[in-house]
Amino acid sequence: MTQADFKPFSVLIQGVAECYGQSLSAQGIALRFKVLEHCDVSEVQKAALSIMATRKYTSMPTPADFLEHISGGSAEDKAEVEAGKVLAAIGKHGAYASVVFDDSVTQAVIVQAYGGWPKLCADCGVEESENWFRKNFAKVWAAYSRQGVKLTGHLPGIFEISNSANGYHEHIEPPKLIGDQDKARAVLEAGKNPLAITKDPENIRGEIRAVSSVLEAFRLEQ
């Protein structure tokens, strides 16, 4: 928004406040405009209508509420979508394939909160755990999203980690793209580390140890 948008913004935001039985001071309006000025005025208007149509609370929406609606929904809504996307990828590709998600927050959650792709697949491979997984993954995703925790690159599967450890780099296949293909490619290209985990070698060794334990568990089941 530009300064020319301040008047229509002021009228809009006061109308929203009136719907919630409140009034705003000139300073309150100016502060809200400052927070939202990087958005288009039409986006703010659409967000206002969306908020009033869906918000169940009686308190005045905050600028953060507007930003969530402008970006496509609340962090919790997006987290539910990402949890379903992860479960679908587990069922389709499994622990052996390397993957790259179209959301870098999702990748950060998988690595930092669940120990990497193979371990996540092993821990969440039973149907009974899906409801538990959805709830907990969504909670962590929302927290990571609000804090801006992201991870680019790709998530190595068992084949890649095993072949890398043994020097068989020519046998490593490209990662599977999960979600929006173009966005997933962008996340992949943004990663500078080939393993897309961390620049710390100790964490890479920890990933290899985790995969070894998963492989051993698979052998015992056979």
Provide an overview of this structure.
The chain is elongated. A two-stranded parallel ribbon has the order 1-2. It is built from 11 helices and 2 strands, in the order αααααβααααβαα. With 222 residues, the chain is mainly alpha-helical. About 7% of the residues have low confidence. 30% of the residues are buried.
User: What distance separates the N and C termini?
Assistant: 62 Å
Beta strands, count: 2
- Uncertain residue segments: 194-208
How would a textbook summarize the main sheet? Answer: 2 strands, parallel
Helix content: 55-70%
Q: Radius of gyration over alpha carbons?
A: 22 Å
* Element-by-element helix/strand order: HHHHHEHHHHEHH
Q: Structural class of the secondary elements?
A: mainly alpha
Fraction of residues in β-strands: under 5%
Tell me, briefly, the overall form: elongated
Q: What's the rounded overall pLDDT mean?
A: 84
Instruction: Figure out the total of helices.
Output: 11
Q: Name the strands of the widest sheet in spatial order.
A: 1-2
Give a quick set of tags describing it.
mainly alpha; two-stranded parallel ribbon; 222 residues
Short characterization:
The chain is an all-alpha fold and 222 residues long.
List the helices and strands and how they pair.
Elements: H1 6-19, H2 26-36, H3 41-54, H4 63-70, H5 75-93, E1 99-101, H6 104-114, H7 117-123, H8 130-147, H9 158-165, E2 176-178, H10 181-190, H11 201-221
Parallel strand pairs: 1-2
Helix pairs in contact: 1-3, 3-4, 5-8, 6-8, 9-11
